[in-house]
Amino acid sequence: MRIANPIYDVVFKYLLDDEKVARLVLSALLGKEVLELQFRPTEVHQVAARPDGTRLLVLRMDFAATVRLEDGGGKRVLIEIQKARSAWDVQRFRRYLDSSHGGRNNVILDPDGRRQVIPTVTILFLDEGLEGLDVPVLAFSRHCLDVATGDEVRTSDPFVEALAPDGIVVQINHLEGLRRTGLEQLLAVFDQGRKARFDPHFLDIPEEHFPERYRDVLYRLLRAGAEQKILDGMDVEEDILAALKDKVRESADLRQTLIEKDQALAEKPRILAEKDRLIADLESRLSGS
Q1: Strand runs (DSSP E) across the chain, as ranges?
Q2: What pTM was estimated for this model as a whole?
Q3: pLDDT for res 195
């Protein structure tokens, strides 16, 4: 089956704009069933942040969800999804959010009218991945420790839960060929080793090898590949990335030119001193002859 490639932001957003599909994907990533899901405003931020003057592009999608706990109960969480080319972009993007927006609004009123901070789970999709780590999916979470004993202290206190987010990192560039778990089988739709031979806008995924419970994800991406608006969006994204790469190359060439100029200027005093020495030596010889 030929599906639209979700490495493109326009396809990724289209995929998760469908509530049923989003619940399937998020349940697989969280390892917990998402019982309810509400979309929050979706933002694409373009921020001037790179030292070379180029602009980073980060897609951010937010959801308010209720997940099923092991005891059968439910828990309210915020899910923040960010998709970027690299961890560098995400880091600069988060600093931008903190400085310009003052952080997210993750406070709700409970049934008694009291303000409660909702814990946040951050899910990062990175095209390039993290340096030195070839694990396709990483999970990290807070640990509350008794400092005196070093023992872990389990608590569900809302204040503690809101101190730092749990998180998941999907390294798209390390997904190729790995199908060890149900999650990795689902994430096959991001496997760039499946690119169509003559068109990177599409991936070829064998439907018969794809888990049946996740087929709606596959079909959603199949529909994306048939929508002209999505195809045009992929072309625009490619143009933007090509322009960024050109700027990076131009900046690198300029930096190299400046380095060579600085080196030449640093050598100039030595060359002039050598020239003066040769002239003095020649004059000495002429005066002695």
Answers
A1: 2-4, 34-39, 43-48, 55-68, 74-84, 107-109, 115-117, 120-126, 137-140, 166-171, 195-196, 199-204
A2: 0.74
A3: 94
